[in-house]
Amino acid sequence: MKLGLFSFNTEYTLRLDHLARAAEARGFESLWVPEHTHIPVPLPGEPADPETGMPLAGGHLFYLPEEYRHMSDPFTTLAAAAAVTTRLRLGTCVCLINQHHPLTLAKQVACLDRLSDGRFIFGIGAGWNVAEMGHHGVKFEQRWPELRERLQALRTLWSSDCARFEGEHVRFADSWQYPKPLLPQGPPVVLGTLDTPFARRQVARYGDGWLPLTFDVAETQRSIADIHAQMAALGRDPAKLEVSLFFLADEIQSPDTLARARETGAARAILRLPVGDERTVLNALDSYAKSLS
Length: 293
Description:
The protein is of the alpha/beta class. The chain has a single domain, classed as Luciferase-like domain (TIM Barrel, Alpha-Beta Barrel), CATH 3.20.20. The chain is built from nine helices and eleven strands. The chain has an eight-stranded parallel barrel, surrounded by five helices. Helix 2 (74-83) links the parallel strand 2 and strand 3 (89-92). Helix 1 (16-26) packs parallel to helix 9 (278-289). It starts with a strand and ends with a helix.
């Protein structure tokens, strides 16, 4: 099982190109960053953290940490990381695909794919922040149909010399767009989701890979088996699904947890780094690096 790293990629933690160099030097396989274009301020009468003003998270279990409103642009910073590395794979965890027009996003992804010599992994999600996606004109109830259609439009732009698309949410007439990604189908598309029956159905139908938020390794292992069974029933090869267990919890994962993660058969585990200064981040890197041998 390969080990990847996740950074909240704020302006006050270790800069991503510096982090990428440090991660590659220590032998990590991949580096992943998230995306939120912005975090809407809670409206009057809505719950807000009394100290930070941040809204409740999607599940309404806790207030969002402040780093959610400080995320850097993933494509700009991953391009910087690509420029200073040669082996490290680079991924979005996740790109909120519905908050981009496919004509723009297709070019951004293709350029990053080429700048990284094919090291980019396109992790995408439908989103959970109702207010944020609403500012982009996306209705919460339509987020998955929009994701599927936008992904189809991206793949049309990547694979066709002269592309056109007529959908419910996306339309464009005959168009040339270059550069193309290195592969006609584009980079690997990985769906980042909660571990729910609905999400597993989406992965089984549309995903090259799965990025489940992993809180219980045993439960996730059962869910992987469920997706494999669904893929087989749909005529898709389960062996081609690359699973990356995503540990978002704000704690250093123990060697025992990583050992149980290996038993799931997942391709990689993605481990969250702390939001802090250079010393704090590098100490966490060195701690996780002990699990590489």
